[in-house]
Amino acid sequence: MKVGKFAFRLSGEDYAERLERRQAEIRDDLELSIKIELGGALSHMQSTIEQSLVRIEDKVEEIADRVTAVEHRPS
Question: What is the pLDDT of residue 54?
Fold first, then answer.
């Protein structure tokens, strides 16, 4: 009878250890997934901002060229 209870206890402890390992694996997987999603979103946002800055810089340069042309126009 004691052997049966001891075997049951070991299998229960084994199950608990496997469960803890699985929970740790799931937590690690979830953490990695979140980091990947955030990294992708931040990368996309950075690209969008850089594209907007390029357009703004082009417009400012165009306006500066027009101002220079007007300033150097013969009177």
Answer: 97
With a CB cutoff of 8 Å and minimum separation 6, the contacts of 25 are none
User: For residue 61, which amino acid is it?
Assistant: E
What does the alpha-carbon distance between residue 7 and residue 11 come to, in Å, rounded to a whole number? Answer: 6
The two tokens of residue 25 are 């694996």
CA distance 31 to 38: 11
The token pair at 45 is: 């946002």
Residue 74 phi/psi, 5-degree rounding, is -65, 140
Q: What is the pLDDT of residues 16-63, one digit of tens each?
A: 889 999 999 999 999 999 999 999 999 999 999 999 999 999 999 999
Helix residue spans in the chain (DSSP H):
2-71
